[in-house]
UniProtKB/TrEMBL annotation:
This is Alpha-1,4 glucan phosphorylase. Allosteric enzyme that catalyzes the rate-limiting step in glycogen catabolism, the phosphorolytic cleavage of glycogen to produce glucose-1-phosphate, and plays a central role in maintaining cellular and organismal glucose homeostasis. PANTHER family: GLYCOGEN PHOSPHORYLASE (PTHR11468), MALTODEXTRIN PHOSPHORYLASE (PTHR11468:SF25). It catalyses: [(1->4)-alpha-D-glucosyl](n) + phosphate = [(1->4)-alpha-D-glucosyl](n-1) + alpha-D-glucose 1-phosphate. It comes from the Bacteria. Its EC number is 2.4.1.1. InterPro entries: Glycg_phsphrylas, Glyco_trans_35, Pyridoxal_P_attach_site. Gene3D superfamilies: Glycogen Phosphorylase B. Belongs to the glycogen phosphorylase family. It comes from Populibacterium corticicola. GO terms for molecular function: 1,4-alpha-oligoglucan phosphorylase activity. Keywords: Carbohydrate metabolism, Glycosyltransferase, Pyridoxal phosphate, Transferase. It is an enzyme of class 2 (transferase).
Amino acid sequence: AAQDHEPSPALDATEFVRVFTNELQYTRGVTLPQASNQDKYIALVRTVLRPLIDRWQATQARQAEQNGKTVAYLSAEYLLGPQTGNALLSTGLEDTAREALSTLDIDLDELIAHEIEPGLGNGGLGRLAACFIDSLATKDISAIGYGIRYNYGIFRQTFVNGHQVEQPDTWMSHGTPWEITHPELAQPIGFAGRVEDTINSAGQPARKWVPGWYVQAVPCNYLVPGYGTDTVNTLRLWSARAADEFNLHIFNSGDFENAVRARTYAENISNVLYPEDSTPQGKELRLQQQYFFVAASIRDLVARTLERGVSYADLPQHITFQLNDTHPVVGIPELMRLLVDDHELEWDDAWSITREIFNYTCHTLLPEALEVWPVDLFGRLLPRHLEIIYRINEEFLNEVRLNTGNELLVRQMSIIQEQPFRAVRMAHLATVGSRRVNGVAALHSQLLKDNVLKDFSAYWPDKFTNVTNGVTPRRFVRLSNPELSDLLNDAIGTGWVRDLSQLSQLEPLADDSGFLEQFALVKAHNKSRIAAVLAARDGIELPSDAIYDVMVKRLHEYKRQSLKLLHVVSLYARVLAGTLNAEDIEPRVVVFGAKAAPGYRMAKETIALINAVAARINNAPELQGRLKIAFPANYNVTLAEKLIPAADLSEQISLAGKEASGTGNMKFALNGALTVGTLDGANVEIHELVGDENFFLFGMTEPDAESLAQAGYVPSKFYEKDADLKLAIDLIASGAFSNGDRSAFESIVSDWLWHDRFMALADFRSYLDIQTKVEEKYRDKAAWNRSAVLNVARTGFFSSDRSIQDYLDRIWMEK
Ligand code: 26W
């Protein structure tokens, strides 16, 4: 039913078969009986790409003709997820492809499952970029995404004896049919070298950068189809290729081996995505990656805009660069260098153009996540850019000094930090060089103004704004939850896929018992589906009639996976202690999905502890099968699409004031899960919209947590005074989950008692109490289902289409 009202297919089944077999024969060189799944998958993709490429070319012609403003999204990460389903949806070809392939005895779903997803991102920030380019295309906005085509994306997680072991993500080992690469359009990107005094073409003294070495940036294009519209935008990812002139002198000197080594060094730039999420390591290669993609992107778009006859002064009317966190911020001095050194504009003119073109989105609140680059490293790699940053800083600080006369303020706002080492503060550079700065949820934007960037917001109150994150309803409802989509289409029509605010029309159906039953059937279906997936993928056996309680996100202390674990352990400990009857536990499946940064010790130990607890409780006779932990390895977008629609309960339990927004929280609510959450990030807005009766709120507020920290937080006091907490921690400390080895999880236990930076112990009691309320409500099926439907009906706000409209209104087209 879902397909009835959707885009009309560009091909019929007969034509589809013809093109598909043609692709098999002439691009794969195989007959149908010879064809492998890989051959068939590629032929399928190439068939679906045809109508998209037609639309893509028309889009480019249309956008060039309109000569309007182009939004360039600069992001080091795009966590795209699998492409096939989305392309079939956008072309309206899903039914046609299924029918056509079945006449050839090919199962479409098997080919869809064959795809290895491009995991070119770590987590929320990368997935947000992917949702945003989807919405930009769907809303017919002239936009281009720029980033890096990593050879290896986010690592593949495996568990060995419960411990995380990382494997390289070889997503490109068989190539990818989605990419259109143009090596002939490569541009040279310089690094290192020296800066010289020179005379420009007007006879004026000037500075000139003479790079020490070059690498070629090769554009790799991906199509970004809108839904229900003709627009197909571009995602342009840059791949590093050694430049021929790269080390010519070495080669000329006859040192062939070193010449080859030098090429490998250059091509290393786009080889691997850094798996650190929130703690930048200050590695030189990372700064190389950042400059590499940003320099190529800016030159690409500026050159194309100037070629259309746009004047320098008018560039801000034709281009806006959105900086996705600080990773692309080196674009600010790069545009200055381009305008001043290469195009010979006056400094002041270049600076006013630059400050009009860039906007900066901040995605964090943790001070350790703010990037800083040691000045010596920066100056070695980008000597001219460092000079430019110094001049920007000098002029900016002179202005602050003049306006405020406050030397303390001058030091605090400086783009250069002096202690503990001299370094470029990228968030300060971004704020000084941008027209608008935004946070990603209402609370986060407020906290940016109050804490992280407070001097800047006092200085430029109008520069700061909020755009609450969103998620694409195409991938995270329509594609991932076909049964719910059918139910919604029957109830309110199909308009919700492009206008998610229409979900509010469901509101009256929350009191329609027939509708609630159908809704419950959809959820039950999705639970069976994920149980089957996890059985096949990970060998995990799960009941399908239980509360599906899901916590999926990067493993980080501030997100507090350990709090979820303490809840589970405390139930088990109480059953062992005889203070809780297993029969009184509402059957529950707790699903974790989480990767830890490879160098993050505490996160990795938490993974080992979750796996150890799972191994014990999943087979504990005392629990009578009422409590299960599933921790499938390698949580990614592909798995998320199966897991989220099955969830009853969404765990969003970060310490208030630490999670900038969260976006998983939105995906769960839109699929009818109830949230158990703190007043953090976008949870605040979800709670407000769905209403307190339909949300399990617990824990300290941000001001509570701040005062507790000020008063001196002593976690062991909470341990001493809460018998259930003590029982749970003591059970872990006793070695119950490590074959009696009391040392196995000692560092986690002692961290809980003596540090607990994110105050899990302080929120434990409140969390346990709310989980009791969860069980009570779940027993009242009608009440639960009513709340679940109201979550769907009231969260249409969290479409990334709405976020993009806010970016247009508040940032890109503002004024
Ligand atoms: C290694 C340096 C580094 C630093 C920060 C890498 C990645 C980051 C990101 C800011 C981490 C991140 O993904 N932040 C998340 O962004 C999401 C989209 O706005 C938010 O929903 C999450 O709350 C935020 O943690």
